[in-house]
Amino acid sequence: MKKTLLAALLLASGGTQAQELSPEQELLNVVINHRGRLVYAAPLPQLYFTWSDTADLFNRRTGSTLTTRDVSRETLTELVRNSYQMSAASWTATELDSVLLVDRRGASLYFDAHLKRLSAGNEHLTKFYKKAIRHYNATDSSERDIASYTRPVFNANKRYALVEYDNGYMLGGRGYIVLYKREKSWREIGILKRWAH
Q1: Of 46, 115, 154, 173, which one's alpha carbon is 20 to 30 angstroms from that of 195?
Q2: Are 175 and 191 in contact (CB under 8 A)?
Q3: Which helix (H) or strand (E) holds 123?
């Protein structure tokens, strides 16, 4: 009787616990995986952070300077060192399940290739992504806002992470997002802006 009751309870609750996300997936959902964002399918191949880019250049999200109270020089050094083993594998549809993945700037996006994956039959999402794809295809390729990101780099205890981005603009188009994991969620604590070229 007890076994039957337990089985019934498990079936009623779905039978399994919610799958726990990896630290990388949690971070991707915070930084990159935003509905309708255009992202190159190939991540940036390496972190271009050097020690000429000092912690003095970091800004908190509030606009004030990010200091060693926010993130130590040792932690930044560790993040840069860990970036040498960064994977350059293309983003997968599972990792970035809300963005439009773009192979190259001049390529068109096709409804069939994206709608089934992104909207899963949801009428509201289908309309949203159709509009985004039409807008992208109607925009001159030189004017398309497509971002690139490195894969996240973590320190040893996975409490700090660094992601480089390039939004394609000539000035101020490249930067580094510094994140800290508080309790169970990632928070963006600062950003280092630099020229893309």
Answers
A1: 154
A2: yes
A3: helix 123-138
CB 24 within 8 A of CB 86: no
Write a three-state SS string for 151-175. CCEECCCCCEEEEEEECCCCCCCEE
pTM for the structure as a whole: 0.77
* CB-based contact 191:178 (threshold 8 Å): yes
Q: Are 79 and 31 in contact (CB under 8 A)?
A: no
What amino acid is encoded at 84 in this protein? Answer: Y
Q: Which residue type, as a one-letter code, is found at position 41?
A: A
In angstroms, the Cα distances linking 62 to 58, 59, 81, 194 are: 11, 8, 28, 18
Spell out the residues 6+ positions from residue 61 whose beta carbon is closer than 8 angstroms to its own.
Answer: 188, 189, 190, 191
